[in-house]
Amino acid sequence: MTSFTRTLILNQYFTPHEVVDWKDAVTRMFGGKIQVVAQYDEILAHIDRNTLRSFPELGFALRQVMGTDVESIEVKVPAVAVLMRHVRPVKSGVKFSKINVCLRDKFRCQYCGHRFAMSQLNYDHVVPRARGGLTVWENIVSACYGCNSHKADRTPEEAGMKLLSVPHRPRVLPMNEPMIDIGDAPEEWRPYLAA
Fold first, then answer.
1. Chain segment 132-152, per-residue pLDDT in tens
2. CATH 1.20.1070: does it fit domain 90-174?
């Protein structure tokens, strides 16, 4: 699927919130959940019975707007849209997961301090599992592969490594903006992406 069949959704501050499939965007558009601010000029979506059968939410949203079922319709695919409702900039009730550990640690290795993509970070058990360390917020930090390998099954003190912060259970975390490569982004998205 190319970027041109996807829609950039912005929050109320016109910063990226998420990237969704065009069918999700059109469903939200007809449902009054987003306002389209840019469309792909050359790309029309042909919505027919097969599309509606495989994506019933779209059929429901269309029925709400049209007042009846439609056989087929063509619409310009939304390139960029803004949410109609306010989205909290933080998420609460945070569950333990790799993305949330990375968010808590600001995508920084907690040993060397360098920022990495999530794919280049993994969990490090401060107290190693071999010594009874649990996989819980208070014992897990983000670590790059090099630091994690160097620490191995030792405590940070034994490995001669210093933790940048004490791991803790967060009450809230910042919402994660989608990772978008500006070089691969459609032209219509670029005014809304940080350079």
1. 999 999 999 999 999 999 999
2. no
Cα of first residue to Cα of last residue in the chain, in angstroms, is 24
DSSP states along 83-149: ESS---SEEESPPP-HHHHHHHTTTB-TTT--B--GGGEEEEESS-GGGT--SSGGGEEEEEHHHHH
- Domain ranges (residues) in the chain: 3-88+176-192, 90-174
Token pair 């829609």 is at which residue? 7
Q: State both tokens at 122.
A: 């993994």
* φ, ψ of residue 58 in degrees (nearest 5): -65, -40
In terms of Cα–Cα distance, which of 178, 195, 175 is closest to 16?
178
pTM over 0.70? The answer is no
* pLDDT tens column, 109-126: 999 999 988 889 999 999
